[in-house]
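Morning F.,

Quick status update on the modeling queue. The single chain you submitted on Monday has been processed. Sequence for confirmation:
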Amino acid sequence: MHLAKRQRGVDTTAVGQLLLQLPLFLAGLVIVATLSRLLFPGVHWLGILLWLASGTMAFHRPTERVLARHLLNLRHPTPGELSRLEPLWREVTARTGVEGRAYELWIEDSDHLNALAAAGHIVGVTRLSLERLSDGQLAAVLAHELGHHVRGHAWSLILGQWYALPGRFAWAAVRGLIRLVAVLVRERMSFWVAALLLAVGAAGLAVAWEYWFLTLTLVAAPYLLAAVTRRTELRADHHAVAAGFGPMLAEVLHMMQAEEREGGHATATALSGCGKTAGADPGSAVRGGRRSLSGKLLSSHPDYHTRLHHLAPHLERR
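Structure tokens below.
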């Protein structure tokens, strides 16, 4: 086995994922700084530094295992499952020159075809994938997930999501307050409540107009991030093709496309980045059935036709 000198990289889509979450990161920084000033007036800078340093926990193995068990609902493989997975994983990593022992294989007890790459070292597959896919097809799915890791998609997504959490919590609190006011209004609409709503609405519009660029960025960011995340799936597909698993990956996509046409609940073979955490479709897989235009624009995965279309030239060349 030849180990590549460079085990990981960062491609343009990984950089794009980070940049598109920059507005939420800045909002989170403002929120954390404000709370630190209120709670720790003398050493508010310490709270900011601790929050900035907390992102490194995404690459801390014990923290990753907690994430896998409790957030992604994964478990360690049984001896039988491991005996099936390990030889395939060794072949996939050997073909790409990657040290396979740097990653951990996990299982999700799910009745859907699915797989994921999360944090810095997690590679998971569903129980149904083990039962239904052939060795070559399963190796192709693993090669796709490895592509997310070596190209920097997994860690960049979870890091961006982590630093965006304060902003997301703040937005959730604002929406909760709006719902509460709406309930109060429905129950009893007094003059003072109407005046308060008018004042808050006017202030909100004034802020949005004054900082129109930031407002536009926050509105457009989810759609742009979804578009970049769909591109990461195509990049990971290409990684599987380059490792020699293109035909098998195409078989899996055709299989899932057929299930979708039959009306079954199909999911894509690769969950970008951090799977089921905030920000991804965390379902974040392409599901069966028709989707609205908004659903398509916010989907983290391209449809099967698009993926197969992008695979075709690579398969022809090989």
